[in-house]
Design a protein that fits this description.
It contains 8 helices and 26 strands. The chain is α+β, with helices and mostly antiparallel strands and about 475 residues long. The chain has a 6-stranded mixed β-sheet with strand order 3-11-10-15-16-7, covered by helices on one side. A 5-stranded mixed barrel has the order 21-22-23-25-24. It is globular.
Length: about 475
Amino acid sequence: LDVLSPLEQAQEASCESFVCTQQGSDCDIWDGQPICKCKDRCEKEPNFTCASDGLTYYNKCYMDAEACIRGISLTMVPCKYIFTWPNTSPVPQETTARPTPGAGPEVPIPPALYNNPFHQSVYMGGTVSFHCDVSGRPRPDITWEKQSDHEENFIMRPDQMYGNMVITNIGQLVIYNAQYEDSGIYTCTARNSAGLLRADFPLSVIKRESSSGEPQLGSTQPFPNTECLKEPDKRDCEAHEVRWHFDAKKGSCLTFRYGGCGANRNHFETYEECRSACVSNAVHTCLLPMVQGPCKNWEARWAYNHLMKQCHSFVYGGCEGNNNNFDSKETCEDVCPFPKNLQCKTCRLKNKMVLSLCRSDFAIVGRLMEIIEDQDSGIARFALEDVLKDEKMGLKFFNIKYLEVTLTDMDWNCPCPNMTTDDGPLIIMGEVHDGMAMLDPSSYVRAANDKRVKKIYELIEKKTCDLLNRFQD
C-alpha cells in the first residue's frame, strides 16, 4: 500500500464531498483536513433582510454569518411584522411631560449615534481608535468592516483581534502600529429589532516627514474639477503607496494603491485633502446618520434613515447633533429623501412606443412592489400582470410572477424612470444583459391603459418590428 506524506495528504484534501450543516458556514482546508468555518466576508451590496431573531441585516449573507457565529438557525421574515416604531412625535407640554430614555413602556428604539463621525489622521506606527458609541433599545449589536474595492467586505466583531486591529467588547475599533494600507473608510454597523444604522469613519495614515496631515488650504490655485473626474492611475511605477482619490460615481473619497506614475492629479495623501479639493458641497442632510448627542435635554425628534428609506423617531439630547434632525415626521418627509419642492425635469424617452418596443428585449405590464436605491443604481421589483414581449428571459415559459429589474445611471434626487408603488400598472420596456433585466433613465416606462396595451399587441401581431428592421437593413 502507498502511504501518503503529510504534504501529499494536504494536497489530497478536498471539500468536494464534505458537507457543512450549520447555516452560514463554508468548507475550508485546515491543517490538511476539511473543516466548517463561519463566513467572514459578505458582499457590499445592500439587500436589507429581516430575520426571525427580530433584527435587520444588511443582506442575507450577514444574517447567515450571524447564525453561524451564534450556532443557531435564522430565517427571513416579512419586515412589516418586525418593525414597531415608537410613537414619540412631540405632543403639547400641558398633556405630556418631555420624553426621557427611561420613561414609558419598553418600546424598541432604533440605534442613534452619541457623536458625529469624524476623520482622523495618524502617523505611521501610531495608534488610533474609533468609538461607535450608540444608543438604542434593545442594546444594538455592533460590527465593523473596512470598505475596499473588492466585491466583499471583511466583517469584524467585538472581542476579536484581526492582525493589528482589535474590536473591544464595547464596539470600539483600535488600530495599533498603523501602516499605510490601513488608510481607508471604516464602517460601523449598529442594529437592533427597531432598525439599522451605518456610519463611516475615515482614517489617513501619513508619513512622519509630512508637514501636516490636514488639507493644504493655503494654495491660491483652485484644484481643477476635471482632475477630480479622472480615473485614479493604478499603474505600477517607482512608488508603492496608499492614496485617496475622488470617486465621481459615488461622490466620495476612497483609497487606492498609487504606483507613482502621475498620469493625473486625482491622488491625495489624506481624506481631508481629497474632500477639500473635490467634494464641493456638504453631505446631503438625508444621508447623515441619526445622532442623539451627549447632552441630556431630552426631546423627541425625527430623522431620515437612508438605509431603511423612511423617517424614524428618536430621542435627541439637545446638543451636537446634525441637520438630519426634524421636529415632526411631516417635516422630515417634506425634506427627505429629497425636497418635495425640488424642480425636476420631466423624464425624456429615448424613443416613442414603436421604436422602444422594437429595440427592447422585453416589454411587460407590471405593478411596482419595491424599489431599492444605491449610489447611482438600484433595483425595482415588479408583480407581472402581462408579458407583451420577451426574447431572452422565458417569463411565460417559466410562469414567472415577479421580475427584478436593475436600474442604471440613476440620479435619485430626480429619478428617471420616476416610479412609485402608488402608480398602478405600468408598461415597462428594457434590455436584458447576462440574463438580467435592465432599465436606464431613457427607458420606456408609462402608465398602462387599454389603448396602449392594445396598440402594442397590434404592433406585435402585424410584425411591425420585422418590417422596420428589414427597411433599416
